[in-house]
């Protein structure tokens, strides 16, 4: 799939700005397609791009904050030691290393999401962390109360999943790159890689 995805017949320059015509290789017919990295049409609605930018900034910012608070224990948060203890209660081993890895992942992946670089890939580990939080707090009930609740974590998981499939939008460093043109195919590849990584983490640490 990856070979087919990145390969294409030689383009024939078209008469429309920002478009090229690709020969289908059989009948000789050509199909107009947007050239990689070509600018959007002047009349394109910027609303979806702004919406995705806002979503990226909020979701990425939340995960960055969670990663940083594990290092700096802001506002009385338990920090790395407290998070490691929570992981031990969930049945994980090597919790100090896992806590450190989780914090770094939140900061790095959240930062990539904010700037829109490899955003679909960066959303995958964030999705995994959010889903794990839902699973391990499911018995606390749906609504967020003093006793717990997983609705907030479910919302983060849904937002991260949406960004995996939609991509980061035009206002990002990913815009114009080859994989940016195929967000759904990119998402499937990244989700498979994320599933493998999750299986490895569970095997090693639990």
- Share of helix, binned: 55-70%
Total helix count? 7
Order of helices and strands: HEEEHHHHHH
N-to-C CA distance: 33 Å
- Give the structural class: mainly alpha
The largest sheet, given as strand count, sense and whether it forms a barrel, is:
3 strands, antiparallel
Low-confidence runs: 1-22, 33-42
- Radius of gyration equals 21 Å
Keywords: Cell membrane, Membrane, Transmembrane, Transmembrane helix
Subcellular location: Cell membrane
Organism: Actinoalloteichus caeruleus DSM 43889
Pfam families: DoxX
Describe the structure.
This protein has 206 residues and is mainly alpha-helical. It has a domain at 1-34. The protein is 58% helix and 6% strand. The chain is built from seven helices and three strands; from the N terminus they run αβββαααααα. It has helices at 2-6, 47-72, 79-89, 95-115, 119-136, 151-166, 183-205, and strands at residues 11-13, 19-23, 30-34. The chain has a three-stranded antiparallel beta sheet with strand order 1-2-3, with no helix packed on it. Strand 1 (11-13) and strand 2 form a beta hairpin. It is globular. The two termini are 33 Å apart. Residues 1-22 and 33-42 have low confidence and may be disordered.
